[in-house]
């Protein structure tokens, strides 16, 4: 048997090495994205996420990009590509602003093991330099992604997200010092609103509103840790994070928020809520200097022997 020896030209070797390096980088990038996927994803630059969004058992690529300051969302599923086309009612998924990035939430409210896609962003408002929030919900119908809900609210919530009850979606709004909720349930591939008698501080909404009002009072000379908002066992490091933020010469303006229940009692009632709030920070000495702050709150239900049980903030994380 003859030994065959293949000789490669130097040019071909360079091409081969370039292809190997390129494929290695792409593989590493995809693995990195896979390991970093979380429920709530802040999008302040072009980004890819991996998840099975079409129910075929294969992870699809959800790609968010910006063109001319507008967000566009594409899903690549094997050899097919789909664009998330917003309804004509609000004909955009949002504009790109560094101080108000888009948020993508994947949540299986249909319980069919295919998550629905929830987007939150903003568009240019009618008032000078003020943006308006925008929400969309996209659902896979077996052939394409339909925009089944859109609104200009700035609160998005998920109730009974992983317990044995029917999942519910909240769309709410913080306006004129009030936080109002509307509840929805998925019926026949459509979100339908239903009447609900909300208890006081339902899902910690009063606590979240109190925290938003506290942030609006920054910068402060002295931070007041109110017992009405914060749990007695709030970590000292978390308090110092708030203190450091209050000392900065920044005015904080609430933009939007998302929340979901993350723990339940033996009866399936929510005992812990994760609130993620989005603020625009403006330097009080240079109004052109702005940035984004994302603040995560864990709000726990604290039983009280005097029947004053309520949700209070037990953890703070500032990004």
In short:
The protein has 319 residues and is an alpha+beta fold.
Molecular structure report:
With 319 residues, the chain is α+β, with helices and mostly antiparallel strands. The chain has a domain at 161-187 and 197-319: Nuclear Transport Factor 2, Chain: A. The protein contains 3 helices and 17 strands. It has helices spanning 10-36, 205-216, 236-247; strands at 40-43, 47-51, 60-67, 70-77, 80-83, 102-107, 116-124, 131-140, 145-151, 155-159, 168-175, 178-187, 190-194, 250-264, 270-283, 286-302, 310-318. The model is unreliable at 1-14 and 24-39 (pLDDT under 50).
State the order of secondary-structure elements, H for helix, E for strand.
Answer: HEEEEEEEEEEEEEHHEEEE
**Might you state the CATH topology name of the domain at 161-187 and 197-319?**
Nuclear Transport Factor 2, Chain: A
Bulk shape: globular
The radius of gyration computed from the alpha-carbon positions, rounded to a whole number of angstroms, is: 23 Å
- Low-pLDDT segments, ≥5 res: 1-14, 24-39
Multimerization status: single chain
- The helix content is 10-25%
Summing up helix and strand content along with how strands pair, one would put the structural category as alpha+beta
CATH architecture of the domain at 161-187 and 197-319: Roll
